[in-house]
Amino acid sequence: MTKDKYRIIVVDDDANTAELLAMTIQTLTEYSVRFFNDPHQALNHFMKESADLVITDISMPGIDGFEMVQKMK
Questions:
Q1: Cα separations (Å) of 22 from 7, 15, 65?
Q2: What is the pLDDT of residues 13-54, one digit of tens each?
Q3: Hey, which of 2, 17, 18, 49 has its CA 20 to 30 A from 61?
């Protein structure tokens, strides 16, 4: 699989952090990166289009990172 086929999801309730991390990864790697500041939106996106890697904050309102990843699993 080539680099441009890898899909990464970044999730952090701080939108600035999520965007900065996603932009950094995409700039350095050219992977396809989506970022979300709402774990429910990230989960909905994942159900439609899976990812090769999920980077998430643990402490988020509503659903924490552990629970979100468990649902993705």
A1: 11, 10, 17
A2: 999 999 999 999 999 987 999 999 999 999 999 999 989 999
A3: 49
